[in-house]
Write a structure and sequence with these properties.
Elements (H helix, E strand, L loop, with lengths): L1 E10 L3 H12 L4 E5 L16 E2 L6 H7 L5 H5 L1 E2 L5 H11 L6 H9 L1 H10 L4 E3 L1 H4 E4 L2 E4 L5 E3 L2 H15 L3 E4 L1 E9 L2 E9 L2 E12 L8 H8 L7 E2 L8 H8 L4 E2 L5 E7 L23 E3 L18 H9 L6 E5 L18 E4 L2 H7 L5 H13 L36 E13 L2 E2 L6 E3 L5 E7 L16 H21 L2
Helix pairs in contact: 1-8, 1-14, 4-5, 6-14, 12-13
Length: about 500
Protein backbone atom coordinates (compact mmCIF):
# COMPACT_ATOMS: atom_id res chain seq x y z
CA UNK A 1 0.00 0.00 0.00
CA UNK A 2 1.30 3.45 -0.87
CA UNK A 3 0.66 7.02 0.22
CA UNK A 4 0.69 9.94 -2.25
CA UNK A 5 4.21 10.97 -3.22
CA UNK A 6 5.64 14.33 -2.11
CA UNK A 7 8.76 16.29 -2.91
CA UNK A 8 9.68 16.52 0.77
CA UNK A 9 8.51 14.33 3.65
CA UNK A 10 9.10 15.56 7.20
CA UNK A 11 9.06 13.17 10.14
CA UNK A 12 7.71 14.94 13.22
CA UNK A 13 5.29 17.82 13.79
CA UNK A 14 6.94 19.99 16.43
CA UNK A 15 8.72 23.31 16.13
CA UNK A 16 11.73 22.09 14.10
CA UNK A 17 9.56 19.96 11.81
CA UNK A 18 7.05 22.68 11.01
CA UNK A 19 9.74 25.30 10.43
CA UNK A 20 11.24 22.82 7.97
CA UNK A 21 7.84 22.30 6.34
CA UNK A 22 7.21 26.02 5.97
CA UNK A 23 10.68 26.62 4.54
CA UNK A 24 10.39 23.76 2.02
CA UNK A 25 6.95 24.93 0.93
CA UNK A 26 8.35 28.43 0.49
CA UNK A 27 10.80 26.95 -2.01
CA UNK A 28 7.91 25.53 -4.02
CA UNK A 29 8.14 21.92 -2.84
CA UNK A 30 5.12 19.75 -2.08
CA UNK A 31 5.36 18.77 1.56
CA UNK A 32 3.94 15.98 3.71
CA UNK A 33 4.40 15.94 7.49
CA UNK A 34 4.23 12.64 9.39
CA UNK A 35 3.15 12.84 13.03
CA UNK A 36 3.37 9.66 15.10
CA UNK A 37 1.01 11.04 17.74
CA UNK A 38 -2.75 11.39 17.33
CA UNK A 39 -3.87 14.91 16.48
CA UNK A 40 -4.82 15.74 20.08
CA UNK A 41 -1.19 15.08 21.15
CA UNK A 42 0.52 16.73 18.17
CA UNK A 43 3.56 18.93 18.45
CA UNK A 44 6.26 16.80 20.05
CA UNK A 45 8.24 18.19 22.96
CA UNK A 46 7.84 21.75 21.72
CA UNK A 47 4.24 21.81 22.92
CA UNK A 48 5.28 21.07 26.51
CA UNK A 49 7.76 23.96 26.77
CA UNK A 50 7.39 27.50 28.05
CA UNK A 51 8.06 28.71 24.51
CA UNK A 52 11.27 30.51 25.51
CA UNK A 53 13.65 31.30 22.65
CA UNK A 54 17.18 32.58 23.10
CA UNK A 55 17.89 35.16 20.44
CA UNK A 56 20.46 37.83 19.66
CA UNK A 57 19.15 41.38 19.95
CA UNK A 58 21.14 44.60 20.08
CA UNK A 59 18.50 47.10 21.14
CA UNK A 60 14.83 47.60 21.83
CA UNK A 61 14.24 48.22 18.12
CA UNK A 62 15.19 44.60 17.42
CA UNK A 63 12.66 43.46 20.01
CA UNK A 64 10.01 45.72 18.52
CA UNK A 65 10.64 44.11 15.15
CA UNK A 66 9.99 40.70 16.70
CA UNK A 67 7.18 41.98 18.91
CA UNK A 68 5.32 44.80 17.13
CA UNK A 69 2.68 44.74 19.89
CA UNK A 70 5.28 45.86 22.47
CA UNK A 71 3.79 48.99 24.00
CA UNK A 72 5.53 52.25 24.83
CA UNK A 73 4.54 51.71 28.47
CA UNK A 74 6.25 48.32 28.52
CA UNK A 75 9.36 49.83 26.94
CA UNK A 76 9.52 52.68 29.43
CA UNK A 77 8.93 50.39 32.43
CA UNK A 78 11.44 47.72 31.39
CA UNK A 79 15.20 47.37 31.18
CA UNK A 80 15.52 44.83 28.36
CA UNK A 81 19.28 45.20 28.14
CA UNK A 82 20.92 43.57 25.11
CA UNK A 83 21.91 40.05 24.22
CA UNK A 84 24.76 40.26 21.77
CA UNK A 85 26.14 37.57 19.51
CA UNK A 86 29.30 37.67 21.64
CA UNK A 87 27.26 36.93 24.78
CA UNK A 88 25.51 34.05 23.04
CA UNK A 89 28.86 32.60 21.92
CA UNK A 90 30.24 32.97 25.45
CA UNK A 91 27.22 31.24 26.99
CA UNK A 92 27.31 28.34 24.54
CA UNK A 93 31.03 27.85 25.07
CA UNK A 94 30.95 28.15 28.84
CA UNK A 95 28.08 25.78 29.56
CA UNK A 96 29.19 23.11 27.06
CA UNK A 97 32.83 23.33 28.17
CA UNK A 98 33.66 24.54 24.65
CA UNK A 99 32.77 21.22 23.06
CA UNK A 100 29.85 22.48 21.00
CA UNK A 101 30.40 22.00 17.27
CA UNK A 102 31.72 25.38 16.04
CA UNK A 103 29.93 25.27 12.68
CA UNK A 104 26.56 24.43 14.20
CA UNK A 105 27.06 26.97 16.98
CA UNK A 106 27.81 29.73 14.49
CA UNK A 107 24.75 28.84 12.42
CA UNK A 108 22.56 28.79 15.51
CA UNK A 109 23.70 32.17 16.81
CA UNK A 110 24.00 34.08 13.54
CA UNK A 111 20.60 32.86 12.35
CA UNK A 112 18.71 33.23 15.62
CA UNK A 113 17.30 36.71 15.03
CA UNK A 114 16.60 36.40 11.27
CA UNK A 115 14.91 33.02 11.82
CA UNK A 116 12.57 34.39 14.49
CA UNK A 117 11.80 37.34 12.20
CA UNK A 118 10.94 34.84 9.47
CA UNK A 119 8.68 32.94 11.88
CA UNK A 120 7.01 36.19 12.84
CA UNK A 121 6.29 36.84 9.16
CA UNK A 122 4.72 33.37 8.99
CA UNK A 123 2.30 34.27 11.78
CA UNK A 124 4.13 33.31 14.99
CA UNK A 125 3.74 35.98 17.68
CA UNK A 126 6.34 36.65 20.34
CA UNK A 127 6.23 38.50 23.66
CA UNK A 128 8.57 39.45 26.52
CA UNK A 129 9.05 36.69 29.08
CA UNK A 130 8.04 38.81 32.08
CA UNK A 131 6.67 36.02 34.27
CA UNK A 132 9.83 33.93 34.30
CA UNK A 133 12.81 36.12 33.35
CA UNK A 134 12.25 39.54 34.84
CA UNK A 135 12.29 40.91 38.37
CA UNK A 136 11.08 44.37 39.37
CA UNK A 137 13.93 46.44 40.80
CA UNK A 138 13.39 50.06 41.87
CA UNK A 139 10.04 50.14 40.10
CA UNK A 140 11.37 48.86 36.77
CA UNK A 141 11.36 45.34 35.32
CA UNK A 142 14.83 44.05 34.55
CA UNK A 143 15.52 41.01 32.39
CA UNK A 144 18.39 38.71 33.29
CA UNK A 145 20.20 35.63 32.03
CA UNK A 146 20.07 36.42 28.33
CA UNK A 147 16.55 35.12 27.88
CA UNK A 148 13.88 37.68 26.98
CA UNK A 149 11.60 36.31 24.24
CA UNK A 150 8.90 33.65 24.33
CA UNK A 151 6.26 32.52 21.89
CA UNK A 152 2.78 33.90 22.57
CA UNK A 153 0.95 31.26 24.59
CA UNK A 154 4.13 29.33 25.44
CA UNK A 155 4.82 25.99 23.80
CA UNK A 156 1.13 25.37 23.26
CA UNK A 157 0.79 28.70 21.49
CA UNK A 158 3.91 28.14 19.40
CA UNK A 159 2.66 24.80 18.08
CA UNK A 160 -0.83 26.14 17.48
CA UNK A 161 0.50 29.07 15.44
CA UNK A 162 2.91 26.90 13.43
CA UNK A 163 0.13 24.44 12.62
CA UNK A 164 -2.12 27.33 11.56
CA UNK A 165 0.66 28.60 9.31
CA UNK A 166 1.05 25.12 7.79
CA UNK A 167 -2.70 24.76 7.22
CA UNK A 168 -2.83 28.14 5.42
CA UNK A 169 -0.24 26.80 3.00
CA UNK A 170 -2.02 23.47 2.47
CA UNK A 171 0.79 21.44 4.04
CA UNK A 172 -0.60 17.97 4.63
CA UNK A 173 -0.13 16.37 8.07
CA UNK A 174 -0.71 12.64 8.48
CA UNK A 175 -1.46 11.80 12.13
CA UNK A 176 -0.90 8.44 13.81
CA UNK A 177 1.74 7.82 11.17
CA UNK A 178 4.94 6.27 12.51
CA UNK A 179 8.00 6.27 10.27
CA UNK A 180 9.69 2.86 10.36
CA UNK A 181 12.42 2.77 7.74
CA UNK A 182 14.10 4.91 5.11
CA UNK A 183 14.03 3.71 1.52
CA UNK A 184 17.33 4.29 -0.23
CA UNK A 185 19.41 3.19 -3.17
CA UNK A 186 22.90 4.07 -4.35
CA UNK A 187 21.70 7.56 -5.26
CA UNK A 188 20.31 8.36 -1.82
CA UNK A 189 16.97 8.51 0.00
CA UNK A 190 13.90 7.74 -2.07
CA UNK A 191 11.15 7.51 0.53
CA UNK A 192 9.92 5.92 3.72
CA UNK A 193 8.11 2.89 5.02
CA UNK A 194 5.51 3.97 7.57
CA UNK A 195 2.70 2.55 9.67
CA UNK A 196 -0.37 4.73 9.23
CA UNK A 197 -3.46 3.92 11.29
CA UNK A 198 -2.11 0.40 11.75
CA UNK A 199 -1.38 -0.19 8.04
CA UNK A 200 2.16 -0.49 6.64
CA UNK A 201 2.60 1.86 3.69
CA UNK A 202 5.29 3.30 1.43
CA UNK A 203 5.68 6.94 0.51
CA UNK A 204 7.96 8.20 -2.26
CA UNK A 205 9.79 11.52 -2.09
CA UNK A 206 12.90 13.38 -3.17
CA UNK A 207 13.99 14.29 0.35
CA UNK A 208 13.31 13.30 3.96
CA UNK A 209 13.79 15.63 6.94
CA UNK A 210 14.02 13.88 10.30
CA UNK A 211 12.74 16.14 13.07
CA UNK A 212 11.09 13.70 15.46
CA UNK A 213 13.03 14.20 18.68
CA UNK A 214 15.59 12.35 20.76
CA UNK A 215 15.24 9.16 22.78
CA UNK A 216 14.20 10.57 26.16
CA UNK A 217 10.90 8.61 26.19
CA UNK A 218 12.71 5.29 25.62
CA UNK A 219 13.62 4.01 29.09
CA UNK A 220 15.76 1.19 27.69
CA UNK A 221 17.83 3.58 25.59
CA UNK A 222 18.10 6.04 28.50
CA UNK A 223 19.58 3.32 30.69
CA UNK A 224 21.84 2.08 27.88
CA UNK A 225 23.30 5.47 26.98
CA UNK A 226 22.79 7.77 29.97
CA UNK A 227 23.49 5.11 32.57
CA UNK A 228 21.88 3.15 35.41
CA UNK A 229 19.06 4.92 37.19
CA UNK A 230 17.85 6.95 34.25
CA UNK A 231 14.89 4.64 33.79
CA UNK A 232 13.63 6.22 37.04
CA UNK A 233 13.44 9.75 35.63
CA UNK A 234 10.15 11.36 34.68
CA UNK A 235 9.71 12.40 31.03
CA UNK A 236 8.80 16.08 30.80
CA UNK A 237 7.29 15.92 27.34
CA UNK A 238 5.79 13.61 24.78
CA UNK A 239 5.69 9.83 25.11
CA UNK A 240 6.45 9.45 21.41
CA UNK A 241 10.12 10.55 21.38
CA UNK A 242 11.64 7.08 21.49
CA UNK A 243 14.53 7.56 19.07
CA UNK A 244 12.78 6.48 15.86
CA UNK A 245 14.51 9.10 13.72
CA UNK A 246 17.94 8.35 15.15
CA UNK A 247 17.42 4.61 14.62
CA UNK A 248 16.34 5.06 10.99
CA UNK A 249 19.23 7.38 10.24
CA UNK A 250 21.79 5.00 11.75
CA UNK A 251 20.35 2.09 9.77
CA UNK A 252 20.77 4.25 6.66
CA UNK A 253 24.44 4.78 7.50
CA UNK A 254 24.34 8.05 9.45
CA UNK A 255 27.26 8.97 11.67
CA UNK A 256 26.47 9.48 15.34
CA UNK A 257 27.93 12.38 17.29
CA UNK A 258 27.58 14.46 20.42
CA UNK A 259 27.14 13.82 24.13
CA UNK A 260 25.30 10.46 24.14
CA UNK A 261 25.65 10.12 27.90
CA UNK A 262 24.25 13.62 28.47
CA UNK A 263 20.80 15.14 28.48
CA UNK A 264 18.71 18.13 29.47
CA UNK A 265 17.23 17.21 32.86
CA UNK A 266 15.58 19.48 35.43
CA UNK A 267 13.89 19.58 38.79
CA UNK A 268 10.36 18.24 38.24
CA UNK A 269 7.47 17.67 40.65
CA UNK A 270 7.98 14.39 42.52
CA UNK A 271 4.43 13.23 41.88
CA UNK A 272 4.15 14.27 38.24
CA UNK A 273 3.00 11.53 35.83
CA UNK A 274 5.47 9.33 33.94
CA UNK A 275 5.14 11.47 30.81
CA UNK A 276 4.14 15.07 30.22
CA UNK A 277 0.59 16.26 30.82
CA UNK A 278 -0.64 18.75 28.23
CA UNK A 279 -3.12 20.24 30.68
CA UNK A 280 -0.16 21.28 32.85
CA UNK A 281 2.50 21.80 30.16
CA UNK A 282 5.80 22.79 31.73
CA UNK A 283 4.17 23.68 35.06
CA UNK A 284 5.70 20.68 36.86
CA UNK A 285 9.16 22.27 36.59
CA UNK A 286 10.55 24.02 39.65
CA UNK A 287 13.29 26.48 38.71
CA UNK A 288 13.42 29.10 41.48
CA UNK A 289 15.93 27.12 43.55
CA UNK A 290 18.56 29.94 43.35
CA UNK A 291 16.33 31.85 45.79
CA UNK A 292 16.36 29.10 48.43
CA UNK A 293 18.11 25.84 49.28
CA UNK A 294 17.76 22.25 48.11
CA UNK A 295 17.80 19.38 50.61
CA UNK A 296 18.13 15.63 50.01
CA UNK A 297 16.79 12.71 52.06
CA UNK A 298 19.77 12.91 54.41
CA UNK A 299 18.86 16.52 55.23
CA UNK A 300 21.93 17.87 53.41
CA UNK A 301 22.40 20.43 50.67
CA UNK A 302 24.04 18.85 47.62
CA UNK A 303 24.53 21.62 45.01
CA UNK A 304 25.43 25.29 44.88
CA UNK A 305 21.94 26.63 44.25
CA UNK A 306 23.36 30.06 43.37
CA UNK A 307 26.21 28.99 41.11
CA UNK A 308 24.67 30.91 38.21
CA UNK A 309 21.35 32.14 36.89
CA UNK A 310 18.93 29.23 36.70
CA UNK A 311 19.08 29.41 32.85
CA UNK A 312 22.62 28.04 33.03
CA UNK A 313 22.21 25.40 35.76
CA UNK A 314 18.67 24.04 35.60
CA UNK A 315 19.35 21.66 32.72
CA UNK A 316 22.12 19.88 34.65
CA UNK A 317 20.69 19.92 38.17
CA UNK A 318 18.05 17.35 37.29
CA UNK A 319 20.89 14.82 37.02
CA UNK A 320 22.10 15.87 40.47
CA UNK A 321 18.64 15.24 41.94
CA UNK A 322 18.53 11.80 40.31
CA UNK A 323 21.82 10.94 42.04
CA UNK A 324 20.40 11.65 45.51
CA UNK A 325 19.04 8.92 47.83
CA UNK A 326 15.61 7.83 46.55
CA UNK A 327 15.93 10.28 43.63
CA UNK A 328 14.24 13.27 45.25
CA UNK A 329 14.93 16.62 46.89
CA UNK A 330 13.04 19.43 48.60
CA UNK A 331 13.36 23.08 47.62
CA UNK A 332 12.92 25.27 50.71
CA UNK A 333 12.06 29.00 50.82
CA UNK A 334 10.93 31.54 53.36
CA UNK A 335 8.53 34.47 53.12
CA UNK A 336 11.22 36.95 51.99
CA UNK A 337 11.34 35.40 48.52
CA UNK A 338 8.07 33.55 47.93
CA UNK A 339 6.65 36.46 45.93
CA UNK A 340 9.62 36.05 43.55
CA UNK A 341 8.97 32.39 42.80
CA UNK A 342 8.10 31.53 39.22
CA UNK A 343 4.50 30.94 38.16
CA UNK A 344 4.91 27.14 38.16
CA UNK A 345 5.01 27.17 41.97
CA UNK A 346 1.39 28.35 42.06
CA UNK A 347 -0.29 25.62 40.04
CA UNK A 348 -2.82 23.28 41.63
CA UNK A 349 -0.86 20.08 40.82
CA UNK A 350 2.08 20.62 43.16
CA UNK A 351 3.78 18.66 45.97
CA UNK A 352 4.08 21.31 48.67
CA UNK A 353 4.28 21.67 52.45
CA UNK A 354 4.11 24.85 54.52
CA UNK A 355 4.63 25.79 58.15
CA UNK A 356 5.18 28.74 60.46
CA UNK A 357 8.22 27.11 62.08
CA UNK A 358 11.27 25.31 60.80
CA UNK A 359 10.85 22.65 63.48
CA UNK A 360 7.39 21.80 62.26
CA UNK A 361 8.43 22.03 58.64
CA UNK A 362 11.19 19.48 59.28
CA UNK A 363 8.54 16.90 60.24
CA UNK A 364 6.54 17.59 57.08
CA UNK A 365 9.40 17.02 54.64
CA UNK A 366 8.57 13.47 53.64
CA UNK A 367 11.63 11.18 53.57
CA UNK A 368 14.03 13.76 55.10
CA UNK A 369 16.03 13.38 58.33
CA UNK A 370 14.52 16.25 60.38
CA UNK A 371 17.43 16.68 62.79
CA UNK A 372 20.03 16.96 60.03
CA UNK A 373 17.76 19.32 58.12
CA UNK A 374 17.54 21.71 61.07
CA UNK A 375 21.30 21.53 61.56
CA UNK A 376 21.87 22.24 57.86
CA UNK A 377 19.59 25.29 57.96
CA UNK A 378 21.24 26.63 61.14
CA UNK A 379 24.71 26.32 59.59
CA UNK A 380 23.53 27.88 56.36
CA UNK A 381 21.95 30.85 58.14
CA UNK A 382 25.15 31.56 60.09
CA UNK A 383 27.40 31.43 57.01
CA UNK A 384 25.80 34.16 54.87
CA UNK A 385 27.78 37.22 53.79
CA UNK A 386 24.85 39.46 54.68
CA UNK A 387 26.78 42.70 54.25
CA UNK A 388 26.18 42.25 50.51
CA UNK A 389 22.79 43.41 49.22
CA UNK A 390 20.50 40.78 47.71
CA UNK A 391 19.74 41.41 44.02
CA UNK A 392 18.13 38.63 41.96
CA UNK A 393 18.80 40.38 38.61
CA UNK A 394 22.59 40.07 38.84
CA UNK A 395 25.04 37.57 40.26
CA UNK A 396 25.16 39.54 43.49
CA UNK A 397 27.98 37.71 45.30
CA UNK A 398 25.78 37.37 48.38
CA UNK A 399 27.03 33.89 49.19
CA UNK A 400 28.12 31.76 52.13
CA UNK A 401 31.46 31.01 53.75
CA UNK A 402 32.79 27.91 55.48
CA UNK A 403 30.29 25.32 54.26
CA UNK A 404 31.24 22.08 52.50
CA UNK A 405 29.11 23.33 49.60
CA UNK A 406 28.90 27.10 49.58
CA UNK A 407 26.15 29.04 47.86
CA UNK A 408 27.73 31.62 45.51
CA UNK A 409 24.88 34.12 45.05
CA UNK A 410 21.44 35.07 46.37
CA UNK A 411 21.94 33.55 49.84
CA UNK A 412 19.27 34.61 52.33
CA UNK A 413 18.79 33.23 55.81
CA UNK A 414 15.74 31.03 56.25
CA UNK A 415 14.31 33.01 59.17
CA UNK A 416 11.00 34.55 58.10
CA UNK A 417 7.82 32.47 58.28
CA UNK A 418 5.83 31.05 56.72
CA UNK A 419 8.27 28.53 55.31
CA UNK A 420 7.36 26.57 52.21
CA UNK A 421 8.96 23.55 50.53
CA UNK A 422 8.38 21.76 47.22
CA UNK A 423 9.34 18.14 46.55
CA UNK A 424 11.03 17.41 43.23
CA UNK A 425 12.59 14.58 41.27
CA UNK A 426 14.41 14.47 37.93
CA UNK A 427 12.51 15.32 34.76
CA UNK A 428 14.29 14.57 31.47
CA UNK A 429 13.59 16.99 28.63
CA UNK A 430 15.70 15.75 25.74
CA UNK A 431 18.87 13.82 25.00
CA UNK A 432 22.06 15.44 23.67
CA UNK A 433 23.48 12.65 21.52
CA UNK A 434 22.33 12.28 17.95
CA UNK A 435 23.31 12.24 14.31
CA UNK A 436 25.84 14.36 12.46
CA UNK A 437 24.76 17.07 10.03
CA UNK A 438 26.61 19.66 7.97
CA UNK A 439 25.93 23.38 7.46
CA UNK A 440 22.99 22.55 5.17
CA UNK A 441 21.43 20.20 7.75
CA UNK A 442 22.33 17.25 5.49
CA UNK A 443 22.99 14.00 7.34
CA UNK A 444 26.58 12.77 7.14
CA UNK A 445 27.50 9.07 7.01
CA UNK A 446 30.31 7.22 8.77
CA UNK A 447 32.62 7.91 5.82
CA UNK A 448 32.08 11.65 6.10
CA UNK A 449 29.92 11.75 2.99
CA UNK A 450 26.48 13.27 2.54
CA UNK A 451 23.53 10.88 2.52
CA UNK A 452 21.78 12.41 -0.45
CA UNK A 453 18.22 13.44 0.26
CA UNK A 454 18.42 13.05 4.05
CA UNK A 455 18.26 16.03 6.43
CA UNK A 456 17.81 16.47 10.17
CA UNK A 457 16.83 19.15 12.67
CA UNK A 458 15.84 19.48 16.30
CA UNK A 459 16.63 17.22 19.23
CA UNK A 460 18.03 14.35 17.19
CA UNK A 461 20.91 16.45 15.89
CA UNK A 462 24.04 15.75 17.91
CA UNK A 463 26.99 18.01 18.60
CA UNK A 464 25.36 21.19 19.89
CA UNK A 465 24.95 20.51 23.61
CA UNK A 466 27.38 18.88 26.03
CA UNK A 467 26.90 18.51 29.80
CA UNK A 468 24.60 21.51 30.03
CA UNK A 469 22.46 23.91 28.08
CA UNK A 470 21.66 27.66 27.95
CA UNK A 471 17.92 28.03 28.58
CA UNK A 472 15.82 28.74 25.50
CA UNK A 473 18.41 27.43 23.03
CA UNK A 474 16.54 24.22 22.17
CA UNK A 475 13.55 25.83 20.47
CA UNK A 476 15.78 28.35 18.72
CA UNK A 477 18.08 25.63 17.37
CA UNK A 478 15.04 23.65 16.22
CA UNK A 479 13.72 26.66 14.32
CA UNK A 480 17.11 27.59 12.84
CA UNK A 481 18.05 24.11 11.64
CA UNK A 482 14.49 23.29 10.65
CA UNK A 483 14.49 26.30 8.33
CA UNK A 484 17.95 25.41 7.00
CA UNK A 485 16.85 21.82 6.35
CA UNK A 486 13.62 22.91 4.68
CA UNK A 487 15.45 25.38 2.44
CA UNK A 488 18.01 22.78 1.40
CA UNK A 489 15.46 20.02 0.83
CA UNK A 490 13.21 22.40 -1.10
CA UNK A 491 16.12 23.41 -3.31
CA UNK A 492 16.94 19.75 -3.97
CA UNK A 493 13.49 19.27 -5.43
CA UNK A 494 14.39 21.42 -8.38
CA UNK A 495 17.90 20.16 -9.04
Amino acid sequence: MTMPASDVVIVGAGNAALCAALAAEEKGASVTVLERAPEVEKGGNSRYTAGAMRVVYNNVSDLQHLMPELSEEEISNTDFGVYSREQFYDDMGRVTQYRSDPTLTELLIENSFPTLCWMQNKGVRFMPMYGRQAFKVDGKFKFWGGLTVEAWGGGEGLISQLHEAAAKRNIEIAYECRALELIQDDDGIKGLIVKHHGKTKRIQCNAVILACGGFEANSEWRTRYLGPGWELAKVRGTRFNTGDGIKMAIEAGACTTGNWSGCHAVGWDRNAPEFGDLSVGDGFQKHSYPLGIMINANGDRFVDEGADFRNYTYAKYGREVLLQPEQFAWQVFDAKVTDLLRDEYRIRQVTKVESNSLEDLSTRLEGVDPDVFLKTVAQFNKSIKDQIKFNPTVKDGRGTEGLSINKSNWANALDTPPYVAYQITCGITFTFGGIRINENAEVINDDGQIISGLYAAGELVGGLFYFNYPGGTGLTSGSVFGKIAGNAAGDKTWK
